[in-house]
Amino acid sequence: MLTIEGLTIRTNVKTIVEQLKLAVRPGEWCALAGESGSGKSMTAFAIGGLLPSSVTAEGIIAWKDNNLLDLSAKQRRSLLGSEISYIFQDYHGAFTPFLRVGSQLDELMRAHGKQDRKARKQRCIEVLERVQLPAERVYRSYPFQLSGGQLQRAAIAAALLLEPKLLIADEPTTALDTLTAHRVLQLIDQIRTETGISVLWITHDLRHVRKYADRIAVMHEGSLVETGETQAVLNHPAHPYTRRLLAAIPPLSPGAPVRLPYNSTEEQNALERSALHE
Ligand SMILES: Nc1ncnc2c1ncn2[C@@H]1O[C@H](COP(=O)(O)OP(=O)(O)OP(=O)(O)O)[C@@H](O)[C@H]1O
């Protein structure tokens, strides 16, 4: 589905990513892991043509019959959102502060040629419900009236609005507390199961990778060092760098719970319901 071959990303002083080869299959959750500065985000940006102007990319990023690196700015704009969409760590950046969430979602649909106003509103409400938000209220709210977790859900709703086939999630939970992060990842997983969307997930948290990703690709200093089925790679890492990454996972602090602190499913549901009305 998405096939990257020989991707090299550089500035005029250094090479950031070198000869990267990576594929994301339909419906798959693929984690791109590695320490800070290894080139994960630059790879994600290159897919959507979002690289800073001082940075160039060459190679092949094949999507359907196109090399995405060859698209014009106009072709790219029509692809982004409708076929490939992004969520980022900085979910505040997904929305303009002083415009209601609903009007921003509506504008996104209008920009992609959806003319029917009623159908647009209906779709916005449907997607806000899909991400388990109180839809009508969030539709009328300004971004600053929502909590961090709600805003990241609204950003996911925006990313899903036009039914893309690939969601690129660049460290989507780093700015969230542990419980909210867990809920957001669970939500993405549910959506993937229901819609068959593929997920390319940029992360450095191998604990979450083990739980959610089908496949992992490990990057080190701009190169791919290991890729494979998640459990196989994490249980039997072949590359010394993957072993080092695994060894660097911080242990849970003494006395910390080894699972989320719910006593029962009822308690979990009650907590999640109250979070939606916070
Ligand atoms: N605008 C830029 N111009 C030039 N080089 C950049 C720019 N942004 C990032 N880089 C460099 O590109 C390299 C890879 O950065 P990238 O953000 O892709 O890493 P990463 O693996 O996503 O790390 P992190 O987890 O910290 O986001 C780094 O060495 C960084 O200094």
From TrEMBL:
Q: Please, which domain of life does this record's source organism belong to?
A: Bacteria
**Alphabetically ordered keywords of this record:** ATP-binding, Cell inner membrane, Cell membrane, Membrane, Nucleotide-binding, Translocase, Transport
What InterPro entries does the record tag this protein with? AAA+_ATPase (IPR003593), ABC_Ni/Peptide_Import (IPR050388), ABC_transporter-like_ATP-bd (IPR003439), ABC_transporter-like_CS (IPR017871), Oligopep_ABC_C (IPR013563), P-loop_NTPase (IPR027417)
| Gene3D superfamilies, alphabetized | P-loop containing nucleotide triphosphate hydrolases
Instruction: Name the coiled-coil region(s).
Output: none
Q: Where does the record place it?
A: Cell membrane
Alphabetized CDD domains for the sequence: ABC_NikE_OppD_transporters
Molecular function in Gene Ontology: ATP binding
Q: Positions of the region Disordered?
A: 259-278
A Pfam family of this chain: ABC_tran
Ranges of residues in domain ABC transporter: 2-246
Which membrane topology describes this protein?
Peripheral membrane protein
The entry assigns this protein to a family as follows: Belongs to the ABC transporter superfamily.
**Any idea what this protein is called?**
Peptide/nickel transport system ATP-binding protein
